[in-house]
Amino acid sequence: MNSQVSWWVFGVMSAVLILNVEFSIVEGGGASEETKIHIVYLGEREHNDPELVTASHLRMLESLLGSKKDASESMVHSYRQGFSGFAAHLTDSQAKKIAEHPDVVQVSPNTFYEPQTTRVFDYLGLSPSSPKGLLHDAKMGEDVIIGILDSGVWPESPSFSDKGLGPIPKRWKGTCVDGVNFDSKKHCNNKLIGARYYMDGLFKKNKTDSGIIDTEYMSAREALPHGSYVASIAAGAFVPNVSDHGFGMGTARGGAPKARIAMYKGRVDVISISLGRSIPILSEIDVNNVFSYGAFHAISKGITVLMPAGNSGPDAYSVQNIAPWIITVAGTNLDRWFPTPLTLGNNVTLLARTPSVKPEFQAELIYVDSSKKITSEAKGKMVLCFITAESEETADDYLNQQMEVEAKGLIIAGRRSDMVIPTIKMSPSIKLTGPIVATKVADFSSRGPNSVSPYVLKPDIAAPAVSIMANGFAAESGTSLATPAVAGVVALLKAVHPDWSPAMLKSALITSAANPGLVYDADAEDYRRFMCASNYEEKYITTISEQKSLYKCPSPRPSMLDLNLPSITIPFLKEDVTLTRTVTNVGPVNSVYKLIVQPPMGVKISVTPNRLVFNSKVKKLSYQVTVSTTHKANSIYFFGSLTWTDGTHNVVIPLSIRTQMLKYFDQ
C-alpha cells in the first residue's frame, strides 16, 4: 500500500485534492516565473450563499491578476462549505503578495502525501452475534456519517451495499458527483452517500481519451486500491464467504457496518485520513502541516479526526500526525497468521511471514550478498538475501530482479546467519490463530517518542494492521488499515454518546477501550493554551484558530504538562513536578473512585486526593500529581500507570517518565 499519490487536504469536513503540481510560465517584466498551485485560506465564510463565497474569491484573484479572465483561468477550486478559501495557479511572488491581503489567513503551496496502508472486530470484542455490548448498543453505527479522505472508491464493491439501511440522515448536506466511470445516481446510495473528486490541477496535458490521468480516473472512482480498503474497514457492510486465496475465510465487515460513508466532506461525525508525509515531522502550527490545521478546525466543530502513526518503524521518533487533537493510530498484528513453511535440506522448518499460494516445490537455495544484485545464475532457484541498513538494494529491487532472471522464489531475511543450506522446500501457506500468535506492535508501525511535542504521548492507540482482509478481499498491511478500524469504533461510540466531544471519545478509547466511567475532556481553547505553553508565536495560534484578530496567550504562559490528556508524559524530569488532571463522570451519577498507582521504575508518584466522589451536583473533579525521581543520572523512559476504579470501571492512563539531569529546555 505504498503507491505514491499527491494530496492536499484542508479544513473542517475537508476535501481530497488529487493535485500534482502543474507548472506554467508567466511572462512579465523581462523575467519569467513558474506558477504552481497554492491554497489561499480565508478562515470562516462571510456568506452562507456558496455562490457569493466563490464570487468573493474571484474578485480577490482579479485584484491580484488584473482581469476576470486571468482570475477565472488561475482558479483551480473554490472552498465554500466548511470554510472559505481557494486553490489557484500563482507564482511565488503572487502568492507572497496575496498573503499580505488583510482577509487572507494563510497561503500554502500544494503538498505531496502518501497512503499509509475479517477478523479484526471480532478480535477487538465487537461481535455481531453478541446480544450486548457497544456494537449492539450503537445499532451498528446506524446514521453516523464517517468521512473518508483518500484515493477514491470502487463503488461496485459489496462492502458499499445499502441493503437494509434506512434513508440518508437529514443533516447530510453533501453530494455525489458524476465523472468518468462514475454515475452518481447509480453508484451512490444510502450507504455511500457522498463522493467527490478534485483534479483541476492534475496534469491536464496528460489526460487521455478514456478520462484517466496518470492512472487516476477523472472521477471519485479510484484506480489505486486504497480508499476502498479504508472505507470498508471503517463502515463496510456485511459480505459473507470472503477470503484471500482461501486464507482468512469468513464474513468481512467494517467497525460500524451500518454507518454511512462520505468519500470527502459534508456534515460528517468522524473523519478518517489514512495519509501521511515523510520525515521530518512538522510541528502542529507549521503552515505546511495542513492535516493539523484541518483537524483543529474539525475538532472545534465536534468532529473527531483519526490519522495513522505511519509506516516508518521500528525507528524511534518516527511517529507522524502528532497533534494532540488528532487520534494517532499505531498498527499491531492479529492473533492470526498465514505463514509459508520453508523446509531446509536438514529438515528444519522455518515459517516465513508472507503467505504464498504456490504449490509445494523444491529448489536449490542460493545466497546473494546485500551489496550485489540477483543475476541470471539464479534462474529456477530460490534466492536468499538480507536487507540491512547498509544494503544497497531494497526489497523492491530484489523483487524486480527476481522476476527479470526468472528465479523460482525470493526469501528476504532481516538477520544474517553464516550458514546457508543448499536446498529448500517451500510448502503452501497455513493458518495459525490463538495464543501461539502473540499480539505486538508491527515492525513497520512508527514509534514514539514524539519528536516535536515530547510532552504529548504518541501514538495514542493501536489496532490490527497486519494481513487485514478488507475490500477486494486480499490481505493487506499498514497503519492505513489500523486507522479506519479505530474510526469505526469511534463511530459506534458517537452513536451511543452523540453529545461527547472528540476529546471525550478519544479518552474513552485510551483509558478503558470504550466503557470509561470517567473521561478526560479538552476543547479548542485548551489546545490553544497548549500551543501557548509550547512557545508558539501568537500569530500562528491565531491562524490555526480561524481568528481574524490576534489571539493573546495568558501571561505567564501555561505549562505543557497541564493539557488535560488521558496520559502523563514527562521527558525531562529533574526536580519534583506537579501537574493537574480533570475527569468528568459519564457513568453512574453517584460514584466513588479509588486510586491505584503503578509508578515507573525509580519514580515516585503522589496523588491528591486519592478518592473521587461524584454525585448529582459534582460531575467534574480535578486531582494533582506530583512526580519525583530517585535516579541519580539520566535514564531511559520508564513506564507505569494511574488508575481510578469504582469496582466496575477501571479508568487507566499511561505514565511515561524519563529522568534528565541535564535540562534541554524549560518544562
From TrEMBL:
Transmembrane intervals: 7-26
CDD domains found in the cross-reference section: Peptidases_S8_3
GO molecular function annotations of the record: serine-type endopeptidase activity
SUPFAM superfamilies membership: Subtilisin-like
Keyword annotations of the record: Glycoprotein, Hydrolase, Membrane, Protease, Serine protease, Signal, Transmembrane, Transmembrane helix
Highest taxon in the source lineage: Eukaryota
Sequence ranges assigned to domain Inhibitor I9 in this UniProt record: 38-114
Enzyme active site: D150, H226, S480
GO biological process: proteolysis
Family: Belongs to the peptidase S8 family.
Name of the protein this chain belongs to: Uncharacterized protein
Protein's organism: Brassica carinata (Ethiopian mustard)
